Amino acid sequence: MRANFLLSVLLFSFLTNSLFAQKTYLLRPDRVFDGQESHENWVVLVKNEKITGVGPASQLTADSQNAEVIDLKGCTLLPGFIEGHSHLFLHPYNETSWDDQVLKESRSFRTARATLHAKRTLMAGFTTVRDLGTEGAEYDDFGLKQAINQGIIPGPRMIIATKALIATGSYGPRGFSADITIPQGAEEADGQDLIKAVRSQIGKGADVIKIYADYRWGLNGETRPTFSTDEIKLIVETAKSSGRPVVAHASSAEGMKRAILGGVETLEHGDGGTPEIFKLMREHGVALCPTLAAGDATSQYRGWKKGTDAEPERIKNKRITFKNALDAGVTILAGGDVGVFSHGDNARELEMLAEYGMRPIDVLRSATSVNAKVFHQDNLGQIKSGFLADIVAVEGKPEIDISAIRKVKLVMKNGMLYKD
Ligand SMILES: [Zn+2]
Question: Which stretches does DSSP call E strand in 285-354?
Fold first, then answer.
């Protein structure tokens, strides 16, 4: 018994040592954006999975630490980007419609794709994703997360929602004969049954509970609220017992209002937000993930020739509501609803946040320290001693030209180099 125990301890330490054979690195870029501010001529020391030193080059040397020096001339070092809204189990709708992905693609096919999506996301410098629902692929995000965490495949660390919750009859795919039951893109539950649905998703691995507070199920196909405020409160109360937050897809003013009053922590999309709603968000400390890139992508899939045609009403409106959110002082998250457009093109949302009126340095803050704080990731999103060594180096100065984030030269996650 005891010998067996010792053997398994030895085996475990062998496995962990070989899996995480990390070193000590001294990273020497032109400057470091620490999640808040930029510092010229700073260097960063990484030991095993953590950042152990940050500061002026004169104060940190490689010799005393036996560190491998990585010169990153012309580069800015930043915390690994955090994608605020992805669906690794979806791929762009101009390749295959959402309905067809849910109904015609097998889960094995979708998982095979998801592994590639995960790799592309990481290589683009996004070392963490908040993945907000498998959209019909059951709990397969949990297995994907396990495979990444065990080092079997490369990918970002994942904060997962599993199936997400919808009010019965409100979601899709829809438009079929009432005589047949069509698989849905999320789990249907209502009233008191929501307690069991929330708990079972948590039991199957959900880190966050995602709900659809409204959807296009109005009499004429318009967006209308789904859950009542009381139902949302019940979901939040149930999830909170386990320490998990609830986040809501919400595009209409009424759907947003119910979600805010129900106690959710973040709103996704928010296209129909009014100045009053954004004021309410600010008062309740609810953050907005505007997913600008998703609307931009779907408008183009519907025929809009960006740069040639005039902007469609939807885009014009989005610019106005986003500005209203900024003016109201709502916390802005960086998250594009990736999956609607290509995984690995996550930079698109950051570029659009700048295009729609945020200062590039505020965009960088959103994609690092702000996302980390709102997502309860206390050791991520900053280049700071003691924090996990999730680091990206890009060529140029993204605080001046945000598109520099596309020129990724180095990606490190947990102190391991994925791109050098
Ligand atoms: Zn989404």
Answer: 287-289
